[in-house]
């Protein structure tokens, strides 16, 4: 009997293509999550709670804004950050979502577009997990079309008055500071809105069937007065928030591989130990076909993620290439999670096993940071030179 693989990515020996540092970071993150987080995830998912007490521990491990330089950030490579996202989402998409929003949206918006005073005030605290950030772009009526957002900021002397609503905001209900994007007379601009600012309130979204171990909220701005020092001075136009989204999308295309890999690992373990008709179900041809198809998907998705990570570290990664990664890897991860659930049979509908939880979470991942349709049309525009976004 051949020894079975404990890690589906061993099929192509992908770890051999990583540096010692990359392997060490991946192993460190995986070990921390196995000991501290994984045992409690089913309970958090079932109860719909996010473990806020974990945030300082994530900061201590260097996971918050880990790919940013200075201000208490770890300054890792893009591949190292991607591998951390892979391990985070292998445990739960909600956990990776928290880290992505904290580092690639909230912190990156300040790091890339903020003043030195804003960076000094917020980045060290966010990196340490002493403060939590969120990113307010999506609105109830403008998800895929942020250019027509209704949130507006109007000058009033030396201040700004903000009015509007943001929706589906990860971390919103627990954030100490929100990066809020608004229309102004001179185009879209970003503002830092601290919790406690008069007129700024949040409302958590309940009854979720996906990303249950994550906080998703509505941001409400009712005549919120901010000084001009709250404006991100280097963010002009829609390019500002879209560049932040590309940072988050990059983490997703690695994270989705983690969810798929974990689903396949659960199915492999079950298939080699579950006895039916006098033999392990993994010995049946139909089960081996499912496992092989999904292993091919997980391994090719991981290869794509690593390739795009190398491009990002080389400074040559293009937005449409990120769209290729998110579109393919999330789509394949959902297919993998669903197929692996079928191998688990009835046992697969409980929180004892991860594939159905991953499948439910990935429905949100498929939608946020650009729906699959948006990424498909982004790639189509690059292929044809023709835009399908406008009439």
From TrEMBL:
Domain Acyl-CoA dehydrogenase/oxidase N-terminal: 19-130
Alphabetic keyword roster: FAD, Flavoprotein, Oxidoreductase, Transit peptide
Gene3D superfamilies in UniProt: Acyl-CoA dehydrogenase/oxidase, N-terminal domain, Butyryl-CoA Dehydrogenase, subunit A, domain 2, Butyryl-CoA Dehydrogenase, subunit A, domain 3
Domain annotation Acyl-CoA dehydrogenase/oxidase C-terminal: ranges: 236-383
Single GO BP term: fatty acid beta-oxidation using acyl-CoA dehydrogenase
Similarity remark: Belongs to the acyl-CoA dehydrogenase family.
Name used for this protein in its record: Acyl-CoA dehydrogenase
């Amino acid at each position: 009997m051949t020894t079975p693989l404990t890690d589906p990515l061993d099929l192509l020996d992908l770890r051999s293509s990583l540096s010692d540092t990359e392997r060490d970071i991946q192993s460190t993150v995986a070990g921390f999550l196995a000991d501290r987080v994984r045992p409690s995830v089913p309970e958090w998912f079932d109860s719909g709670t996010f473990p806020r007490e974990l945030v300082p521990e994530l900061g201590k491990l260097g996971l918050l804004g880990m790919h940013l330089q200075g201000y208490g950030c770890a300054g890792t490579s893009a591949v190292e950050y991607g591998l951390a996202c892979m391990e985070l989402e292998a445990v739960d998409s909600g956990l990776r979502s928290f880290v992505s929003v904290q580092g690639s949206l909230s912190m990156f918006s300040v790091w890339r577009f903020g003043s030195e005073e804003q960076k000094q005030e917020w980045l060290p605290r966010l990196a340490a997990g002493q403060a939590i950030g969120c990113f307010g772009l999506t609105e109830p009526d403008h998800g895929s079309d942020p250019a027509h957002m209704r949130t507006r900021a109007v000058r009033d002397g030396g201040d700004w008055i903000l009015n509007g609503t943001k929706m589906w905001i990860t971390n919103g209900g627990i954030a100490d500071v929100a990066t809020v994007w608004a229309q102004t007379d001179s185009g879209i601009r970003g503002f830092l809105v601290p919790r406690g600012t008069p007129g700024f309130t949040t409302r958590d979204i309940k009854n979720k069937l996906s990303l249950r171990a994550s906080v998703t909220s509505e941001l409400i701005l009712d005549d919120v007065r901010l000084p001009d020092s709250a404006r991100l001075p280097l963010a002009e136009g829609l390019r500002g928030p879209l560049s932040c989204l590309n940072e988050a999308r990059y983490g997703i295309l690695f994270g989705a591989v983690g969810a798929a890999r974990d689903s396949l690992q659960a199915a492999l373990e079950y298939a080699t130990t579950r006895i039916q008709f006098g033999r392990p179900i993994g010995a049946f041809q139909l089960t081996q076909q499912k496992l092989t198809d999904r292993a091919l998907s997980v391994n090719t998705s991981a290869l794509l993620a690593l390739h795009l990570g190398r491009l990002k570290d080389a400074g040559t990664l293009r937005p449409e290439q990120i769209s290729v990664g998110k579109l393919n890897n999330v789509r394949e991860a959902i297919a993998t999670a669903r197929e692996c659930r079928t191998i688990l049979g009835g046992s697969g509908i409980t929180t004892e096993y991860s594939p159905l939880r991953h499948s439910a979470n990935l429905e949100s991942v498929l939608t946020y940071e650009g729906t699959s349709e948006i990424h498909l049309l982004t790639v189509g525009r690059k292929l044809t030179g023709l835009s399908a976004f406008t009439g």
